[in-house]
Each structure stands twice: as structure tokens, then as C-alpha cells.
Amino acid sequence: MNITSRYMSNNSFSVDFIGIGAMKAASEWILSCLNEHPEICATSYKEINFFNKSYNYKKGLGYYYTFFKHCPNNKIKGEYTPSYMLSPQVAQLIRKNFPDVKIIACLRNPVDRAYSDYRYNIQWNGRFKIFNDFEDTMKNDLDFVERGFYYKQLKNYFEIFPREQILILFFEDLKKNPRDFIQKIYEFLGVKNTNFIPSQVNQRRNITGQYIVKNKIPIINRIIYWIYFKLENLQMMRDIIEKSNIEGLFTNLMNFNKKRIRTRNIDVLTIEPLNKETRDYLLNTIYKDDMRKLESLLDVDLSFWKKQ
């Protein structure tokens, strides 16, 4: 009997937690620390992209189960895909399949998140390289700015999941006290040993600037990025691509075309810090209304973001 049949025959499989975001807010560190806990079994890597990619979701839950085939039934199981927050349909799909699942999200000052995202994308030789700089990316890449609208992304989850099933954390708290931060997640997941300290609790993960990425055939990825950029305002065409396997084929082709080299990335390390004008514009104009609504939704004071 294969893994899918074994789980589905006795209904023994369940996902206990799903991390949904945000991007560039310590998701890899969180997943690694969760995997260290002896009572938890998470996927071996993040970004399964099951619920947010139609070409994966249509493969069915049998496909999803295979990511947990190494997990004993008595362990708390889950995954972390930080881009789930960005897809409006994901909350409903998660609820449909796992109504009792616990939702985890770590939020970061949206301006700092955007700057970190930009640097990481440049390191990865990604689509932001078709623009001149951070400001040019901000003006022309709609998805880039959208990633920081946390209220817009989270309201669906609070509408369909009980609040006690949702844990919202802040990246800034992790920086102050990583031990308390991860133990708060352990408590939320209901492990017996909430005092467990993972070995990498004080280690940084996925540090930007430590490698460069070369395209084996440079023109391939640039053409695909250009196509996506041109289709950005043509929602119908984008929907067709995302619902078909074309996006999956594009993604696999781009990843195959990349070669990662372990060395200092001068292009990334020499990117200038955000100037005050850009930071203030994003924080006090672009994200202001969303942050106000987020404060109300979460019943928190986000002045620590506004003062940065």
C-alpha cells in the first residue's frame, strides 16, 4: 500500500499547522526551529506551493501527503509556504481541506520587508533586475508593493478561521528575543515541552549577499521576466497562465537555468540603504491605511513600525 492509500484508508493523516507568510520574515528560520523539536515533524523544506499554485493543487491531496511521508502519525505535522498570504483563494482551500489546522504568520515592517525582498531578488538574479533600482521596481512591479498589504492578505483568514487557530507574530520580536519567539510557537502548537531550545535559535538563516546566481543561458530568464511584467496588468491572461501548467513549466525552466555560486555578491552588498524620502512615502502613504486596518484587526499598536 503506498503512502497516499495508507493515509486515506484510515483517515489518519492531518496537517496540524500551516505557515502562510510573510515573505522575507524568517520563514526558513521558523521552519528549521520547528523541525528540531522532537514532537514536531515539518516538511524538509519550505515553499511547497500546494494551495497557491493551481497546477499543484489539481494533483490532489495525495500529492500533498507525499511531503509528509517521513512523519510519524504521533507527531505534530505542518509546512510553511510564505507566499500563501498573497493568494486570496488559499484561505478557503486550506479551510476546505483542513478546517482545524493552526495558521501561523510572521509579519515584518512592510518597508523593511520590501527592501529585504529586493536585495534577495537581485541576489537570485530575479525579475527585479529588469528595473533600474528599488524605486523603479516599486513604481513598476505591482506585486512587489502588494506583498506588504498585510491586512488585505490576512482578513480572509480571520473571516473563516476562529481566532484561536491563528497566531500572528512579528519579526521585530524575533530579533529582540529569538528564544521567546520560537517558544511562543511551540506553545501555540500544543507541544508538551515548550521549553525546548533549538540549536540554531541564535543563528541567522539564508543571509543575503553570501552567493551569486548565474543564468546558464542569460536570455531565457530575462524573456520570461519580461513576459510576466507585460502581463501584469492583463489579469485575464495572468489567470490563464497561473491556472495552467505553463507557470510550472516556466518556473522549472528558470530554476534549471540558474547556477548558484558560493561567494560574496558585490551587486547586493553595494545596494544603497533606502533613503528617507522613499521610506516615508511607503510607510506614510502607500501602507498607511492598510497598517491602520491591521492594527484594528489584530488589536495591536504598530507604532514600533512607524518609528523606524
Largest sheet: 5 strands, parallel
CATH architecture, please? 3-Layer(aba) Sandwich
Number of helices: 18
Task: Report the mean per-residue pLDDT as an integer.
Answer: 89
Low-confidence stretches: none
Structural class: alpha/beta
Task: Assign a percent range to the helix content.
Answer: 40-55%
CATH level-1 class: Alpha Beta
Order of helices and strands: HEHEHHEHEHHHHEHHEHHHEHHHH
**3D shape:** globular
What features would you describe in this structure?
The protein is α/β, with parallel strands linked by helices and 308 residues long. The protein has a single domain (14-211, 262-303), classed as Rossmann fold (3-Layer(aba) Sandwich), CATH 3.40.50.300. Helix content is 50%, strand content 10%. The chain has 18 helices and seven strands. It has helices at residues 3-10, 27-36, 54-57, 61-65, 90-97, 110-123, 134-140, 142-146, 150-160, 171-176, 178-189, 218-231, 235-243, 246-256, 266-269, 276-286, 288-298, 303-306, and strands at residues 17-21, 40-42, 76-80, 102-107, 166-170, 212-215, 258-261. The strands form two sheets. The chain has a five-stranded parallel β-sheet with strand order 2-3-1-4-5, sandwiched between helices. A two-stranded antiparallel sheet has the order 6-7. Helix 9 (150-160) packs parallel to helix 17 (288-298). It is globular. The model has no long low-confidence stretch (mean pLDDT 89).
